[in-house]
Design goal:
The structure holds 2 protein chains of 2 kinds. Among the domains of chain A are: about 10-35 and about 500-645, Aldehyde Oxidoreductase, domain 4 (2-Layer Sandwich); about 40-140 and about 215-295, Aldehyde Oxidoreductase, domain 3 (Alpha-Beta Complex), CATH 3.90.1170. In chain A, about 30% of the residues lie in helices and about 25% in strands. In chain A, the strands form 10 sheets. In chain A, strands 3-7-1-16-13-14-15 form a 7-stranded mixed sheet, sandwiched between helices. In chain A, strands 11, 12, 17, 18, 19 and 20 form a 6-stranded mixed sheet that branches. Chain A starts with 7 loop residues before the first helix and ends in a 5-residue tail after the last helix. Chain B has a single domain (about 1-160, about 170-200), classed as Alpha-D-Glucose-1,6-Bisphosphate, Chain A, domain 4 (2-Layer Sandwich). Chain B contains 5 helices and 8 strands. In chain B, strands 1, 2, 3, 4, 5, 6, 7 and 8 form an 8-stranded mixed sheet that branches. The chains are: A alpha+beta, B alpha+beta. Chains A and B meet through strand 8 of A and strand 7 and helix 3 of B.
């Protein structure tokens, strides 16, 4: 025992626990190209699958001729819907209570829909064989606009739903209608509008975009016909749910299905759903008794796997003449594509859209969302957001700007006037959410001071006064609140499974540890941050804590990683599992030190006898004792499992400010400054938080300034390559300034709220707010995204501001 | 993706010969770079294909062409073509072609073409932004081939200085005696070069 005596502070620092900017454990392998992604997996005897896809958006399949493809040497099988029919796998259930075609059954509903699959010796033969499959189509009229889809004489998209007047979310009143979902109190909202001194309304379109993760979707399915076991490596944000679904679809007992999410190259919601490609690869492996790999290419990823947004929104605010908001009404027509495959908690077909009252104390509010089928790919996933929160925040933040403009009030002033006040928390919104904590005013003041808001407004006024100014200057401000951490199982489930999450921790005899989780990292840095939580809770250095996720055979059941739920839900599970271990360790330490449990104090990494610093046992010593000679009446070992069912969501918030300069000659928008203040409650790893915020802001920039999925009149998607689809690189990305306040969540064991999606959710309306602000003196109240140079240039010309 | 074309090409060919050629679908197809008629299905229906080669990529559209209307009095022909390529593209075209005589010069005429072309699948997705330019190039090549082929036909009486011994062709293929004039495939490099030239021309204001 000749180790130098270290102070508690020094020992705490050495743990690299919560609050430390610990370097990411994952990066060592990633920057060396040694990650293990699905496409890195090679198995003996592995075959390759490729997919025949529809060139048209709507049509009947007249016939499919496989002969030429089957004649190609190296082709093992060509399967169509008719081949899957005997297995009842030609259609599959979606997470939203609808069904989706696995392979097109008599009809194609969108361009690039899966029509047939080819299994071959290698990827190249498979691709050649795909071209050799001859499919004859009879074209049908295409419906792309959801409003047109709801016309009485609109073409029927879903023949399979003929006569079904009841959907998963209530009545269907038209053949292309999916659901109508209402939240809030309509009569109260209508009454507020009847009495209002001022009202404003604005239509806005939140374009269809795609999460476009760097790694596309894919899987390697391997069925062992001898053991009857199925192993599938898959790009999934929710491997345990996939296991349940695969078991239900295939009839293989869940105990014989192993789903592994290895390293995942970004998910952003795109990897939550179950795609036809996965199902086909699994079926092929079962049929052929050999491993089958399917990895989609970029065009397939953008064209056919889950898109996001595509909300046509009408917002209305009622207010007093001095700017106090008294009512909110929202009507949305949501384009869900050909199948309703949104990934939302079962009860919420529009996700958490009812967070649409935002950070504001609005006494009466109502929102209605109508889901519609069109001849586009299915999806509607939460692209770096918690189930439609992005759309909701966009709407309310735009509406508050519109109201400010009508009243001639400043954007900051009107927000401050309507904020839910610090002392009102916990605050129940008109939509029924109970906001856990917040301090919006302090955060707003901090941002306005940091950027010298008054100075910026003065500069803008001077620029506006100068007719020769080469630029228009705009200032965007957004003060958003998110709802994340889905969620309490009394409200949230997916396919009937409650949205809890889980953690299992084992402390080894020598004091190192392993934690297994129901979540799965896709770049969030779980292996780094989760270890930090355990380090602080149990006094074990984070360096010796392994975190494992993604293998359903070893990890406890969890609902996965999306909707910023890892820290709010799984993070709490870690803390509580650790606290179970801590309680047992205290008993062991008391036994070792021959004192009563109550006579012990916990300090960083050890139990100390009260009043005697020399008598202590470290967690490592306790661990040895637990395996060596546990006290009478205690089981050996030192481990715990915790399934955490959150009592409520968490409500992170942020204040974002953006300054843009728009070139009056070219329409190009330069982001001069972007200041992002986030409050995610307790901060676990500030460096990773900064990285997450940078990433989210960059994706927000992408959506606001360039991303779109345009369709021509025939339903051809004209933006499905990275030549067309905007993914900003280091070159285009502006400089980000970050800041924070800390308002812990009172109901979360760590006070943490989740952060990775806030910058995406918050930044998108900030860019629009800034661009519109540059035009606001010309009477412009709203401009739809994307704010690319061409569209902005057109707006400049339309409003007489072009040079 | 739909492209609408409305073009007028003045030709140094008399209207009679131009119309004679236009009514011979097999011969007309021969003028279209990369196109051919492989089979006559009925009086007004044909089977054929178009092959487009751009660099290493070859798109081969196979399909049918139907004569919807042929009005000799107006020298008007209405065609509908439909086809698909195995690589995941399909296309259709409605074409109205009218030959109008040049009142000031009986040896000349104007070929008027109005077409609505709809392309689906990969061709529309990748080629969308080039469609109009590529169509322009294809048509320019087609018209040149058409002109040359028409000139090889026997001239009708009283037109120009050409011999006028032969009667206007009837049932026989008008090009039975005419040698195919041009390349049978669309040459990607040539298209690219022509596009580049026209783009530069446009830059310097030389474009017609």
């Amino acid at each position: 025992m000749n180790a130098p005596v270290q102070t508690a502070e020094a020992r705490e620092l050495a743990l690299a626990g919560m609050g430390a900017s610990r370097l990411r454990k994952e990066d060592a392998r990633f920057i060396q190209g040694k990650g293990n992604y699905v496409d890195d997996i090679k198995m003996a005897g592995m075959l390759h699958m490729d997919i025949v896809r529809s060139p048209i958006a709507h049509g009947r399949i007249v016939k499919i001729n496989k002969e030429a493809a089957l004649a190609i040497p190296g082709v093992h099988a060509v399967l169509t819907a008719d081949d899957l029919k005997p297995l009842k796998l030609h259609w599959m259930p979606t997470l939203a209570g609808d069904v989706a075609a696995v392979l097109a059954d008599q009809k194609v509903h969108f361009q690039m829909q899966e029509v047939a699959i080819v299994i071959a010796d290698d990827r190249y033969i498979a691709a050649d064989a795909v071209e050799a499959v001859e499919v004859e189509y009879e074209e049908l009229p295409v419906v792309l606009d959801p409003y047109a889809a709801l016309q009485p004489d609109a073409p029927v998209i879903r023949d399979d739903l003929a006569g079904k007047t009841e959907g998963a979310h209530g009545k269907r009143d038209h053949h292309n209608h999916i659901f109508t979902w209402d939240a809030g109190d309509k009569s109260a909202a209508d009454a507020a509008f009847d009495k209002a001194e001022v009202t404003v309304s604005q239509h806005m379109y939140y374009p269809r975009v795609h999460p476009c993760p760097l790694e596309t979707c894919g899987c390697v399915a391997s069925f062992d016909p001898i053991k009857g076991e199925l192993t599938t490596f898959i790009t999934s944000q929710a491997p345990h749910v996939v296991r349940t679904v695969v078991s239900m679809l295939s009839g293989i007992p869940e105990s014989k299905v192993r789903i592994v999410s290895p390293d995942i190259g970004g998910g952003f919601g795109n990897k939550v759903g179950i795609y036809p490609g996965y199902v086909c690869a699994i079926v092929s492996s079962i049929v052929l008794g050999r491993p089958v790999k399917w990895v989609e290419d970029r065009i397939e990823n953008i064209s056919s796997t889950a898109f996001a947004r595509d909300y046509h929104m009408d917002g209305e605010l009622a207010a007093t003449a001095d700017g106090k908001i008294t009512g909110l009404r929202v009507n949305v027509v949501a384009d869900h594509g050909a199948f309703d495959a949104c990934a939302d908690p079962t009860k919420f077909p529009a996700g958490m859209f009812h967070i649409v009252s935002g950070s504001y104390d609005i006494p009466a509010a109502h929102a209605s969302v109508k889901g519609v089928y069109t001849n586009k790919a299915p999806g509607g996933v939460a692209y770096r957001c918690s189930f439609r929160v992005t759309e909701a925040v966009y709407l309310i933040e735009r509406m508050v700007d519109v109201l400010a403009q009508k009243l001639g009030m400043d954007k900051a002033e009107i927000r401050a006037k309507n904020f839910v006040k610090k002392e009102q928390f916990p605050y129940t919104s008109a939509f029924g959410f109970e906001y856990d904590s917040g301090d919006y005013q302090t955060a707003l003041d901090k941002v306005l001071e940091a950027v010298d808001y008054k100075g910026l407004r003065a500069e803008q006024a001077a620029k506006r006064a100068d007719p020769n100014s080469p630029t228009l200057m705009g200032i965007g401000l957004v003060t958003f609140t998110e709802v994340v951490g889905a969620g309490p199982s009394k409200m949230c489930d997916i396919l009937g499974v409650g949205m809890f999450d889980s953690c299992e921790i084992r402390i080894h005899p020598t004091g190192s540890a392993i934690a297994r989780m129901g979540t799965i990292t896709q770049g969030q840095g779980h292996q780094t941050t989760y270890a930090q939580i355990i380090a602080t809770e149990l006094g074990i250095p984070s360096e010796v804590i392994q975190v494992e996720e993604g293998d359903t055979s070893t990890a406890p059941y969890g609902l996965g990683t999306y909707g910023s739920r890892s820290t709010p839900v799984a993070g709490a599970a870690i803390a509580l599992a650790a606290r179970k271990i801590h309680a047992k360790a205290r008993k062991i330490a008391a036994h070792m030190l021959e004192v009563n449990e109550n006579d012990l104090d916990w300090e960083v990494d050890r139990f100390k006898v009260k009043g005697d610093d020399s008598k202590f046992k470290t967690m490592a010593e306790v661990a040895w004792q637990a395996y060596h000679q546990p006290p009478d009446g205690l089981e050996p070992g030192l481990e715990a499992v915790h399934y955490y069912d959150p009592p409520n969501f968490t409500f992170p918030f942020g204040i974002y400010l953006c300054v843009v300069d728009i070139d009056r000659a070219t329409g190009e928008t330069k982001v001069r400054r972007f200041y992002a203040l986030d409050d995610c409650g307790t901060r676990i790893n500030p460096m990773i938080i900064d990285g997450q915020i940078h990433g989210g802001l960059t994706e927000g920039f992408a959506v606001a300034m360039g991303q779109q999925m345009p369709f021509d009149a025939q339903g051809n998607l004209l933006g499905n390559t990275l030549m067309d689809y905007f993914l900003p690189t280091f070159v285009e990305t502006p400089h980000w300034e970050t800041d924070h306040t800390v308002t812990p969540s009172p109901h979360h064991p760590l006070g943490a709220k989740g952060v990775a999606e806030s910058p995406h959710v918050g930044s998108i309306p900030t860019f629009t707010s800034a661009v519109v602000d540059a035009f606001s003196h010309l009477g412009v109240t709203h401009l739809d995204m994307p704010h690319n140079a061409f569209r902005t240039w057109k707006a400049l010309r339309e409003h007489g501001a072009a040079l | 993706m739909e492209v609408k074309l409305d073009k007028q090409y003045p030709l140094d060919v008399d209207a009679t010969r131009a119309w004679a050629l236009l009514t011979d679908l097999k011969a007309v197809a021969g003028c279209m770079p990369g196109a051919e008629i492989t089979e006559q299905l009925s009086e007004t229906s044909y089977k054929g294909g178009v092959k487009v080669k751009v660099g290493p990529a070859v798109a081969q559209f196979g399909g049918t062409v139907d004569v919807i209307e042929a009005v000799a009095a107006e020298r008007k022909m209405v065609l509908r073509g439909k086809g698909a390529d195995k690589g995941g593209s399909s296309a259709s075209m409605d074409l109205t072609a009218i030959i109008t005589a040049d009142p000031s010069n009986p040896a000349h005429c104007v070929l008027n073409g109005q077409a609505a072309v709809i392309v689906n699948g990969k061709f529309a997705q990748f080629g969308g932004r080039m469609m109009v330019q590529v169509s322009d190039m294809l048509l320019a090549q087609f018209v040149e081939n058409f002109r040359q082929t028409a000139l090889t036909l026997p001239a009708p009486e009283g037109v120009g200085a050409a011999t006028s011994s032969a009667a206007a062709p009837t049932g026989e293929s008008a090009t039975a005696t005419a040698a195919p004039v041009v390349a049978r495939e669309i040459n990607g490099l040539a298209i690219f070069w022509a596009l580049l030239k026209s783009w530069f021309g446009g830059l310097f204001g030389k474009r017609a």
